[in-house]
User: Fold these one by one.
Assistant:
Number 1:
Amino acid sequence: MTHGSVGSRIERVLLSEEAIRVRVAELVELIKADLGELDPVIVALLKGSIVFLADLIRGFDRPLAFDFVGVSSYGDGTSPGEEIALTKELSVDIAGRHVLVVDDILDTGRTLRHVLRYLEVFRPASVRTCVLLDKRARRDVAVEPDYTGFEIGDEFVVGYGMDFADHYRNLPYIGVLAQGR
Ligand code: PRP
């Protein structure tokens, strides 16, 4: 599949629509089995998680609340002194609730760690984490997701919500961006 000039800069498809669909369905079943009768509140991190979130929530056949937290990092992504700021705060009450944090990709782990610390202040009953992609080799803080779609290598991936300079988020698959971009 091509997406005109945008799609043409994709070097290769890393995860096809079908591979993603199958794995997301598996994740839904794992999460449902762990939740039992509990009603979760999903907290998704803007913006990259929105496509994953949209597919994930449609697998649930029960009441489900969700909200967004906006996160922005300042720096080159490799500096230990990098600052992370919230650009959108939580707008639902998660006190005593069972929270599932959803994100598209776990890289250094700093974003997720920051958000987990932020959420704890609201005294949720429990917090679990679900990431579609885990770039494990890049981790520099101790964060371990409860649910992982795929472990991937240290490649620049786009599509299915993930961007390069705000392009490619709408690709239905996950691709590796060509070098020399
Ligand atoms: C990506 C991704 C995670 C974060 C992971 O967000 O969605 O939230 O980076 O990186 P880390 O583990 O090194 O902290 P990005 O900054 O690309 O913003 P976006 O989701 O709005 O595209």
Number 2:
Amino acid sequence: MIQPEKLQRRGLMFVLSSPSGAGKTTISRRLLERDAQLSISISVTTRKPRAGEVHGKDYFFVSEDQFARMSMENELLEHAKVFDYHYGTPKEFVEAQLAGGRDVLFDIDWQGTRQLAQNARGDLVSIFILPPSMEELERRLTTRAQDSAEVVQKRMSKAEAEISHWVEYDYVLVNRDVEETLGHVVSILQAERLRRQRQPQLAEFVKQLCG
Ligand code: 5GP
């Protein structure tokens, strides 16, 4: 007998992509604070930590050799080279969360999103966040002040390439205002959780309902 309050749900993979500086990190953080059913996938990267970044919280910072080993041993759900570094998603954590009916948030680029779409389309919900203008994007990257002017310029030139993949996403939001964008992201997540195919026990429940 399935009790209505005990209906289980399959976890979903919730991807937020955007060019660096479009506000994705703030939105991810705010979303995680308010949603207890959601955990973030912490990526591995060969990039060096920025000031204030913590190993195991922002990323797992690894050497090129460690990354190559993880990739070879099939420990990564997806991986890509972004800027000059390797980034990848550890598989074990994500699989355990999904199996337990929990949702996983990913802050990954279009290459990783494409790989997830190829391997697990049914579990994936993807959102692309656009900046309101390229001027605003540059302003945000500069005031973030974590990167040198040279790195900011490099990120600006990569931004257009990243944006060109907007059509591959399920939802596209223009981040004019963080509160407004966060509201849209919350609505999308709530609606996607209710999709019929994410509720595997529904058929049995309905059978029970109607006798
Ligand atoms: P950053 O170096 O600014 O933290 O991240 C640079 C880019 O790498 C961002 O667009 C971010 O979404 C992407 N990224 C971070 N982790 C992963 C990952 O595990 N896989 C992929 N494909 N991209 C990632």
